[in-house]
Structure formats: C-alpha cells, structure tokens
C-alpha cells in the first residue's frame, strides 16, 4: 500500500471520532509527505549535477590528452602519440554527446558550442597528423600553432569556463547544501508527526489508545526509514560514500531509497574519476619530465668536455704569465668563477636526471664536511663554523658532499657573500641530525612550499635542481630534509639521517 493511501485511510478513521482534530492531523501528515518528495527531488538534482560534472571533467581531460598527443606527434614523430590520439578522440566525442543529452536548455546550448569547436579542433589536429605522416613536419607544427587553432582552443576554454560559472556553486557545495536540505526536510517530517500525535493525546483514554496504536504504526513506518536516511546522509556528508540503504517499505520510501542509493553510487564514480584524472595528470607530468630530463642530460654531458678544455686552457694561460698584473689576475679569477659556476650547474643537472646508485661505507661526518669545504670557493667575508663534535654513519660520502655543497653554496648566496654559516651535529639513538644555518634574510612564506620543486629557482644563475637533488639523495639514504626560516633572521636546513642507511 502506498504511503499516501495508508495515511489517508488511517486519519479518516480518526477524523470520524475526533472531527476537526483529525483534519489537522491529515494536513500535518500531508505536509510530511511533501517533504519526502522534496528530498527525492533534491537527490535527483544531485545525481544530474554529479553526472554533468563528471562529463565536464572528462571533456577537459580528454581535450588535454588530444592536444598533448597531437603536439608530441608533430614534434617527435613517435607513432605512439598518433595511436594515443586516435584512441581518445572517440571518447571525447562520446562525452560531449552524453552531456548534450542530459543538460537543461542553457547547458545544452553551451555543450553544443563545445561540440562545434571540438569538431574544428579535431579536424585541424587530424590535418597535422596527416602532414606528419607525409613527412611535412614543419607544416604540421604550423597547423597546431596557427591563429585558427589558437582561437578555437580559446573558445573551447571559454565555454568550459562558462559551464563552471553557469553552475553557480561547486559540486561539494551542492552536496553539502542538498544534505542540509534533506536533514531539514526530515526534521520537518518528524515535527509534523509529533504535532499530530500531541493533538490526539489530549482526548479520552479510548481515543488516546487508538491514537497511540495508529500513531506508532504510522510513525514507525515513516520515521525508521527516514531516520536511516538521515544517518546515511550524515555519513555521506562526512565522506563515507559506500553507505547503501536497504530498499523496502512503501512506494515513496522505496523510491526515495533507490534514488539515494543511485546518488551514492554516482558520487563514488565521481570520486573514482577524480582519482583516475589525478593519476593521469601525474603520468603526463612524469612523461614531460622524462623527455626534459633526457634532453638536459645530453646537453649537460656535451658541455662538460668543452668546459674542461676551457678550464685547462685558463690554467695554461696562468702558467704562461710569469708575472701577471692585478688586472690580469682579476680576469683569471672571473674566468675561474664562471667555470666553477657552470660546472656546478652541470653537476646539478646530471645528479638530478641521472642519479647513480649509492656506494655505502662507514664515514666520519666531520671528514665529509672538511672535504666539502675544500671544494667550495668561500669568500673571505663569510665565516663557516663547523661542529666541534663528530659522528660516524654509513653513507655515500660523495653524495653527501653534493648535498652539503648545495646547501652551503645556497647559504653563501643567501647572505650575499657576507655573514656567518653554522653547521651543527647531534646524535639520537639511531639517527644523526645535521643543521646548516645562515643569518640571511630568510625565505618568504609564499616561496617556502616550492623550494624542493624541480626547476624552481629565484636566481637567474640557478638551475632549480640543487635542492631537489639534495632531497633525493637524503631520501635514498632513508632520511629526510626539512627547513625552518624566520624572515630577517635566517634559514636552517635540518637533515635527519639513519646511522645505518638502507641498501
């Protein structure tokens, strides 16, 4: 029996006995029934919004994949990028058509515009692929860099941006708002039921008994599934999307439960899609870094040999000048500093993109620090205070020297070649703590989270690979590196290394 019919029959029987009071009860419970419908509509709105958001995210992702594949094929002529493009192009078209089928009038027009622009972009990208296959590589690149292609990409981005603006609020806000509405509607239902029961309780014992019997039956048939719905709504609002409602009861409650379960499954799909998109983006970034890394390693390796020739030539020139004047010595010093800086940048690149396996042996930390200082050109205006105590640990001494060279060189540059650098060592039961402290200006808060990111640098002469290399080396030893800074007072890098590194 439907919930509406059940409620009407029950309260018609009560209305014969209690007259006007019964009418009030029917009105209250009809209001409760309307609240249940509102909950169902709210859940359906969430499901539609979830599906549209899913299609929009997929469209953005597939467009990025197609653009990157077409460009990579034009530049590298690697067939894998053509295969990737032909694999993903139908998927993008399918997602656009799906979005067209479920959106309202305004969103449908927006996705129509996206479909038109997408067809133009696909036509240009297939033209570029055909030119590459014909061996016309430069013409293929020209197509992808043409004004027509760029204009269509701009229209494409603007239409997707309009979608976000048209939605008004983000998906999470929609979910939170709808959950709050569901809870409010549930509360309204409970309040109406309680109000109806209170009216009946004021009459004679017989009517009270009848009212209790009917009230309990009706209340249990409504409030129990709604309470379960409210509990599951709360769990979903906290991020537990795997909760499901057992479908049972009257038609309305059954429909509501089915709609709620569909919403929960839709949300799970969105979460899964977001994770897949994140992994795909990370994969694309990894592929980009791999290509950049290989190219950088080749360039760095090709520069090392001529740089050695320049360095040896400078040494021979210094020997040939038996009694150089002060101006000549300044020129030699400038050349040596430039060679040293270039060598350091080349080593940064090679250490990061072509890391070698660790050679682990027992070493004195103080000996490593002293060896490091012999490899650094320290200005006379900089004071470096080494620790008085020593510590022994199993490590790759060459790799740790690279770490200390980078940290000390950065500290010298941070204090503008004038100031004090303190190096402290302390031991714990299984770890050694090393602190490299300078009295420079400190690191701004907005830059602090980025300092270990590859290619990030605030200096024109830096590669942006020094600190990332340090982090990789320390983590390969099973340790960690952290930084603390105070603006105007200085920066301290803290290294924690196990005394016995993992092989």
Please outline the helices and strands.
Elements: H1 3-18, H2 20-76, H3 79-102, H4 105-133, H5 137-144, H6 147-167, H7 171-201, H8 205-237, H9 251-320, H10 326-353, E1 361-364, H11 365-374, E2 382-385, E3 392-395, H12 397-414, E4 419-427, E5 431-438, H13 466-476, E6 480-486, E7 490-498
Parallel strand pairs: 2-4
Antiparallel strand pairs: 1-3, 4-5, 5-7, 6-7
Helix pairs in contact: 1-2, 1-8, 2-3, 2-4, 2-5, 2-7, 2-9, 3-4, 4-5, 4-6, 7-8, 8-9, 9-10, 10-13, 11-12, 12-13
Characteristic key phrases:
about 500 residues, alpha+beta, 7 strands, about 10% strand
How would you explain this protein's 3D organization?
With 503 residues, the protein is α+β, with helices and mostly antiparallel strands. The chain has 4 domains: 3-45 and 171-286; 54-167, Four Helix Bundle (Hemerythrin (Met), subunit A) (Up-down Bundle); 299-354; 357-498, 2-Layer Sandwich (Heat Shock Protein 90), CATH 3.30.565.10. It contains 13 helices and 7 strands. It has helices at residues 3-18, 20-76, 79-102, 105-133, 137-144, 147-167, 171-201, 205-237, 251-320, 326-353, 365-374, 397-414, 466-476, and strands at residues 361-364, 382-385, 392-395, 419-427, 431-438, 480-486, 490-498. Strands 2-4-5-7-6 form a 5-stranded mixed β-sheet, covered by helices on one side. The protein has a two-stranded antiparallel ribbon with strand order 1-3. Helix 2 (20-76) packs parallel to helix 9. The longest helix has 70 residues, at 251-320. 27% of the residues are buried. The model has no long low-confidence stretch (mean pLDDT 77).
């Amino acid at each position: 029996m439907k919930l509406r019919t059940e409620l009407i029959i029950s309260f018609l029987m009560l209305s014969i006995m209690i007259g006007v009071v019964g009418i009030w009860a029917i009105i209250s419970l009809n209001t409760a029934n309307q609240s249940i419908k509102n909950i169902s509509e709210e859940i359906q709105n969430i499901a539609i919004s979830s599906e549209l958001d899913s299609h929009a995210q997929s469209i953005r992702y597939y467009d990025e994949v197609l653009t990157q594949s077409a460009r990579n094929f034009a530049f590298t002529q690697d067939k894998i990028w053509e295969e990737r493009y032909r694999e993903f192009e139908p998927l993008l078209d399918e997602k656009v058509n799906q979005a067209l089928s479920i959106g309202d009038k305004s969103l449908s027009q927006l996705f129509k515009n996206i479909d038109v622009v997408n067809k133009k972009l696909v036509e240009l990208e297939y033209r570029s692929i055909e030119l590459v296959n014909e061996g016309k590589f430069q013409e293929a690149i020209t197509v992808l860099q043409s004004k027509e292609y760029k204009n269509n990409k701009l229209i494409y981005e603007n239409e997707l941006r309009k979608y976000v603006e048209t939605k008004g609020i983000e998906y999470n806000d929609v979910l939170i708002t709808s959950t709050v509405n569901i809870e409010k509607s549930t509360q309204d239902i409970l309040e109406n039921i309680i109000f109806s029961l209170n009216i009946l309780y004021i009459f004679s014992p017989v009517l009270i008994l009848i009212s209790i019997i009917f009230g309990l039956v009706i209340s249990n048939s409504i409030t129990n599934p709604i309470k379960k719905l409210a509990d599951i709504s709360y769990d979903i609002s906290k991020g537990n999307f795997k909760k499901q409602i057992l479908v049972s009861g009257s038609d309305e409650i059954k429909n509501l439960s089915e709609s709620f379960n569909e919403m929960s499954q839709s949300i799970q799909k969105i979460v899964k899609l977001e994770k897949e998109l994140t992994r795909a983006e990370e994969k694309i970034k990894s592929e980009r870094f791999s290509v950049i890394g290989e190219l950088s390693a080749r360039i760095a390796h090709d520069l090392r040999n001529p740089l050695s020739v320049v360095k040896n030539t400078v040494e021979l020139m210094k020997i040939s000048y038996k009694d150089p004047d002060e101006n000549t010595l300044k020129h030699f010093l400038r050349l040596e500093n430039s060679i040293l800086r270039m060598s350091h940048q080349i080593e940064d690149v090679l250490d990061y993109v072509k890391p070698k396996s660790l050679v682990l042996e027992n070493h004195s930390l103080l000996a490593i620090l002293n060896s490091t200082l012999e490899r650094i050109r320290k200005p006379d205006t900089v004071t470096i205070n080494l620790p008085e105590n020593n510590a022994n640990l199993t490590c790759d001494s060459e790799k740790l020297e690279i770490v200390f060279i980078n940290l000390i060189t950065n500290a010298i540059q941070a204090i503008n070649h004038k100031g004090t650098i303190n190096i402290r060592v302390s031991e714990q039961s299984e770890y050694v703590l090393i602190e490299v402290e300078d009295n420079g200006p400190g690191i701004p808060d907005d830059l602090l989270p980025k300092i270990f990111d590859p290619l990030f640098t605030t200096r024109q002469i830096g590669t942006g690979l020094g600190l990332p290399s340090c982090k990789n080396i320390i983590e390969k030893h099973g340790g960690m590196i952290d930084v603390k800074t105070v603006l105007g007072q200085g920066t301290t890098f803290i290294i924690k290394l196990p005394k016995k590194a993992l092989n």
